[in-house]
Amino acid sequence: MIVKYSANRSWAPHGEDRPLIDVVCVIVCYRPVVSTLLSLCEYILADGAKVILVDNTEQPYLVADRLPIGCSLVTLGHNSGIAHAQNIGVEQALEVGAAIVVFFDQDSTIGVGFLRALVAPLDPSLPEITSPQYIDDDSNAVLPSLRLNRYGLTKAIHRTDAQRPYPVDIVISSGTAATKEVFKIAGRFDEALFIDGVDTEWCLRCRSMGIPIYVVPLATMRHRIGSRSVRIGSFTVHIHSPVRCYYQLRNCFQLMHKPHVPRLFALAHMVSVAFSRMLLLFLVEERFAYLNAYVLAVCDGFKGVVGAKPT
Fold this sequence. Notes:
Low-confidence stretches: none
Largest sheet: 9 strands, mixed
Strand content: 15-25%
Mean pLDDT: 91
Order of helices and strands: EHEEHEHEEEEEEHHEEEHHH
Helix content: 25-40%
């Protein structure tokens, strides 16, 4: 079944009062701050949902016996990339009967009732995705989601006064909820991207198949992009490591070859990423490491290198 955006969509909540026993939250972990991670798990469990932790750390980092009841652990023993880890989590969630799968980062911060508000608009029998209203940890400003026009160019959407869910095209994966029907139609996450661009590619794939994505303004979640952000004029530069910058640049080339990614979007995205990474050089001390990562990213992008960064 493929659905389309509809102005007549009924927003009677489907999960506001029922137990969330068919909601499973997937949290991909890589050397997490355990106290922060456990706090997130406790909030999820308090709403009646289950938790699947997928540990991407090279050495066993989490111990199943020390996790709260309701949490299960999958230890991969190496950094397999967020896309592969999320796919493992989805597979596990569907095996235990999930009707709705929710994704969180290991450092996500939520409050009481967040999960209920997020999944309440979803009809588990339909392919639908909901996302929270994100609040930037540094500036306390609302982080916009994106909507594409007919040509593939983006417009930032943040309706701070909205009371009902509203449609968008691209959201951050952390805090995103998807019904199991979404995975039947759109499939899993693209493991070739490894880390960066995974959520963007998947959202655009869902968009191409008519699967709607809605921001739920009553579900708010704080989020941090990069280790910190710096404002330069009208631009905000997010500080990432050289390795993350490698994936950000390299995967721009991958998006160019995806049939469901509009060409103008892919080109504008590449220009935006390249420009922001050049600005980053004025804000870091290890400029040679960053430049080396940039050159390698462009070379690997042209060669079609995918998956983990070559060592």
